[in-house]
User: What shape does this take?
Amino acid sequence: GAGFPSHVKLKPPSSNPVDMLLLNGAECEPYITADHRQMVEHGREIVDGARIICRILGVNKCRIGIEANKPDALKIMSEAAEAVSNKHISIEVCALKTKYPQGSEKQLIQVLTDRKVPSMALPSSVGVVVHNVSTARAIYQAVIFNKPLYEKVVTVSGKGIERPANLLVKVGTKLSDIVEYLGGTKDSLARVIMGGPMMGFAVSNLNIPITKTTSAVLFLTEEEIDTKPHSQCIRCGWCLDACPMGLEPKEIGLYVEANRSEDTSQFGLFDCFECGSCAYVCPAKRPLVQFIRLAKMKAKR
Ligand code: SF4
Ligand code: SF4
Assistant: This one.
């Protein structure tokens, strides 16, 4: 998933007893289908991974959240879950409304359990541990086959690549090798993004390697990206309405521009998980996520 160490999640603090495992199969960012393919092709391994995690955590309840726009994954995962559920363990697959950012940890916990994680707290504070479906599969492979995590399923997509695909690639593989394997890029390529279009970041060359946290590489053309320059905030408030955490991204942006990053924590800076919804709706095209990342960097110094 996002790179938080799995072994830490598997040992939640004893002060916060955990009673449920949640698996995140929402994969809500556009373009990305790596988890979707794994659920369709390796549903049983994911469910067996969930059983192993439940055993480690000492819990007997697991819920798997999958967006409703993936009916094939819902069907296969439900069948796999049913096949292993018994009086000792209950694994339930839940169809989630298709909306962004349904796959963010706090949103997922609330929709699957009706529990709300407090600001700056971990999921274990409300008795749950959340893993990604691909992490559950990796844990299954580590425990059953003694296989370290040295390869990943990565979505390579966008109109700027000749042959979009989900590929199983070794960690460390350079983007240039992936491009060569998929027939090269198109002349209309305008930007390469590591990650999804909402939360990913642009890269300037193809000598960059796939890491354990790479879920997608997007090759986007001019028509798929917004190149309009940003302008002044018109205080429309759309970013506030769009923020799933109820933060004030407009204020963070204005403070960063005024060189007052150190004063932005009052607007919930560290509760922001950089989903990009605020920047997406902003009519002034303000780079709100970049402002937020800058403010976090400065605040941590
Ligand atoms: S959406 Fe953009 S223009 Fe509107 S208040 Fe937020 S930052 Fe300002
Ligand atoms: S990126 Fe914007 S919308 Fe998303 S959590 Fe942060 S402030 Fe809220």
Q: What stands out?
A: The radius of gyration is 20 Å. The longest strand covers residues 61-67. The chain has a mean pLDDT of 94.
